[in-house]
Amino acid sequence: MAAPKFLQQFTDWLTTTGGRGQYPNYLRSQGYPEGGYEGGIDIASPGGTPVYALETGPLEGAGYFCHGGSMFSKTAACASGSPGYGVVTQRVNVPGYGLQDLYYQHIDIDPGLTLCSMGNCYGQIVQKGQRIGTIRQNVGMLELGFNAGGASQGPGGNQVTWGTVWGPAHPGPWVSDPRPMLKALINNYGNPPDYTGDLSGASDNLPLFLTNLWNGIQATITQLLKDVAVFLIAITLIILGIFLLFRNEIASSVKTARSAAIIA
């Protein structure tokens, strides 16, 4: 299994130019132009180009966000701010670097993924080579990189925090230059999956749409049980409240009934 063509070309670009020559403003990392608060790079490619997962790992977030607006939405439309479009984040094992949270940004998300945020993703496992979306026509590039752990110390002494579609509690530190790790993933693309974390509970033996369907059913059942529990508690409290409110009347009625029974 070979890496997608545009990523193979990207690897060649990294090797031959050091990642700056052809696209000097496309690197988003500390010390370079255009966005020192991000741990990724923009890879130019035509709109409609399929985006495939570089490694196997659990989904940490998938959804749409708006610059200056909502950081999680199920559509690309923005009530306020400008659209940043789709983000998919997964936890992966990067050869030679360990566990990292890898994000794919500014895409149209594949409908096979159930949208989610903050790591509450119903046990979905993204498989290496799985199609996760396409590059948007009006963007013409894929931002690919690694999220910073917790409240990380970003460039210029700024605290960089991540969440929502980028997922919580990232295992890796601030990435000042994501290129070596991206190259390691792309070069490892043809090898078997290399995730060393916990995949227990994942339905990897099922087709993706069945896995996501089952995960969605489980989430719906869980929510339904919670709603039923809340309803039963509410009914119990109402009955208890009525009893306490009319306890004197109830006691009097019981006493009257007992007296009538004795007389009879």
Question: What does it look like?
Answer:
- The chain folds into two domains: 5-202, Glucose Permease (Domain IIA) (Distorted Sandwich), CATH 2.70.70; 219-263.
- Residues 17-36 and 200-209 have low confidence and may be disordered.
- The chain has helices at residues 5-17, 179-187, 208-245, 247-263; strands at 27-28, 40-44, 50-52, 57-67, 82-94, 98-109, 125-126, 131-135, 141-146, 152-153, 159-160.
- The chain is an alpha+beta fold and 264 residues long.
- Strands 1, 2, 3, 4, 5, 6, 7, 8 and 9 form a nine-stranded antiparallel sheet that branches. It has a two-stranded antiparallel sheet with strand order 10-11.
SSE ordering: HEEEEEEEEEEEHHH
Helical run tally? 4
Fraction in helix: 25-40%
First-residue to last-residue Cα separation = 92 Å
Q: Give the amount of beta strand, in percent.
A: 15-25%
Helix and strand content put the structural class at alpha+beta
Keywords:
11 strands; nine-stranded antiparallel β-sheet; alpha+beta; 264 residues; two-stranded antiparallel sheet; 2 domains; 29% helix; Glucose Permease (Domain IIA)
